[in-house]
Amino acid sequence: MNANVADILIEALPYIRNFYGMTLVIKYGGHAMVDEQLKADFARDITLLKFIGLNPVVVHGGGPQISEVMNKMGLSAKFVRGMRQTDAATMDVVEMVLGGKVNKGIVHQINQQGGKAVGLSGKDGQLIQARKLYIEYREDDSKPPEIIDPGLVGEVTCVNPEIINTLTDRGFIPIIAPVGTGEAGETYNINADWVAGKVAQALSAGRFVLMTDVDGVLGADGQLISSVDTGAIGRMIETGEISGGMIPKIECALDALRNGVDKTHIINGKQRHALLLELFTDSGIGTQVTV
Ligand SMILES: Nc1ncnc2c1ncn2[C@@H]1O[C@H](COP(=O)(O)OP(=O)(O)O)[C@@H](O)[C@H]1O
Ligand SMILES: CC(=O)N[C@@H](CCC(=O)OP(=O)(O)O)C(=O)O
């Protein structure tokens, strides 16, 4: 080991000391799972965090991966306000892709790095309870809101963290697919950002990090905004500066902060080792969301 490597390790000491024992919930978006190198880097980062004493819990998406399989099967993917229109056939594909290919892919990658990952869907250990979601859509303020039914799409009503705590206490890394169960036994497709935010709340996580495919929240000029609060967010949503998939991220970040999560960041998962850079540098990267 040369002196530089030793210096880098020593520089990390204050961070490691601060973070020791902290629960960290990471939303790993489908758009960040781009190539094998990035996937392996992510798995290495998560494994490293576990071995230096943090408790990482991963909630993953897989939207693009679901749409790809749907296309191959001749099913067309439709979205209402960012939520996938989910009929019974689509729900089968969602559960197959998220709970199967994507979830087990992440588990395998982490295990390859020497971590002990365990894949779960919200059905395992009654982890995620949900109810049917209806979407309120208002074209403009002069018209009454339209209520849209996206099918088998759920919103989280309760997270039962027992299975997560049991696993983390034993040194395992839980990897969670965003599928939940309704009161009458229905299977629901749930937006992964929201599942991650609710899991972070249930665990009173020290950090909640959303990994996506942009550097963070970008302003109208395309520049990264390093910190946004409730006021700025409201204005940016109104002017359309924040739109599409960024809206659920921001909303669930605020919801998490109001319900016991200490800090929330949105970072670019397409940047190599983004998670480590966010945690182990003073300035961090991406956008910090504050209330
Ligand atoms: N102000 C903004 N800053 C950054 N991204 C934004 C903004 N407004 C809308 N977006 C869009 O949000 C997208 C991220 O959401 P999404 O595609 O759902 O990601 P993921 O699959 O990671 O959940 C960005 O790729 C971008 O197109
Ligand atoms: C209801 C709903 O839209 N569910 C999402 C679940 C996956 C997800 O959220 O994936 P990303 O994080 O990669 O976008 C979907 O079917 O695409």
TrEMBL record:
<dbReference type="GO" id="GO:0042450">
    <property type="term" value="P:L-arginine biosynthetic process via ornithine"/>
</dbReference>
<comment type="function">
    <text>Catalyzes the ATP-dependent phosphorylation of N-acetyl-L-glutamate.</text>
</comment>
<keyword id="KW-0808">Transferase</keyword>
<keyword id="KW-0055">Arginine biosynthesis</keyword>
<dbReference type="Pfam" id="PF00696">
    <property type="entry name" value="AA_kinase"/>
</dbReference>
<dbReference type="GO" id="GO:0005524">
    <property type="term" value="F:ATP binding"/>
</dbReference>
<keyword id="KW-0963">Cytoplasm</keyword>
<keyword id="KW-0418">Kinase</keyword>
<feature type="site" description="Transition state stabilizer">
    <location>
        <position position="27"/>
    </location>
</feature>
<keyword id="KW-0547">Nucleotide-binding</keyword>
<dbReference type="InterPro" id="IPR001057">
    <property type="entry name" value="Glu/AcGlu_kinase"/>
</dbReference>
<feature type="binding site">
    <location>
        <position position="84"/>
    </location>
    <ligand>
        <name>substrate</name>
    </ligand>
</feature>
<protein>
    <recommendedName>
        <fullName>Acetylglutamate kinase</fullName>
        <ecNumber>2.7.2.8</ecNumber>
    </recommendedName>
</protein>
<dbReference type="InterPro" id="IPR036393">
    <property type="entry name" value="AceGlu_kinase-like_sf"/>
</dbReference>
<dbReference type="InterPro" id="IPR001048">
    <property type="entry name" value="Asp/Glu/Uridylate_kinase"/>
</dbReference>
<keyword id="KW-0067">ATP-binding</keyword>
<dbReference type="InterPro" id="IPR037528">
    <property type="entry name" value="ArgB"/>
</dbReference>
<feature type="binding site">
    <location>
        <begin position="62"/>
        <end position="63"/>
    </location>
    <ligand>
        <name>substrate</name>
    </ligand>
</feature>
<comment type="similarity">
    <text>Belongs to the acetylglutamate kinase family. ArgB subfamily.</text>
</comment>
<feature type="site" description="Transition state stabilizer">
    <location>
        <position position="249"/>
    </location>
</feature>
<feature type="domain" description="Aspartate/glutamate/uridylate kinase">
    <location>
        <begin position="22"/>
        <end position="268"/>
    </location>
</feature>
<dbReference type="GO" id="GO:0005737">
    <property type="term" value="C:cytoplasm"/>
</dbReference>
<dbReference type="GO" id="GO:0003991">
    <property type="term" value="F:acetylglutamate kinase activity"/>
</dbReference>
<dbReference type="InterPro" id="IPR041727">
    <property type="entry name" value="NAGK-C"/>
</dbReference>
<comment type="pathway">
    <text>Amino-acid biosynthesis; L-arginine biosynthesis; N(2)-acetyl-L-ornithine from L-glutamate: step 2/4.</text>
</comment>
<dbReference type="InterPro" id="IPR004662">
    <property type="entry name" value="AcgluKinase_fam"/>
</dbReference>
<feature type="binding site">
    <location>
        <position position="189"/>
    </location>
    <ligand>
        <name>substrate</name>
    </ligand>
</feature>
<keyword id="KW-0028">Amino-acid biosynthesis</keyword>
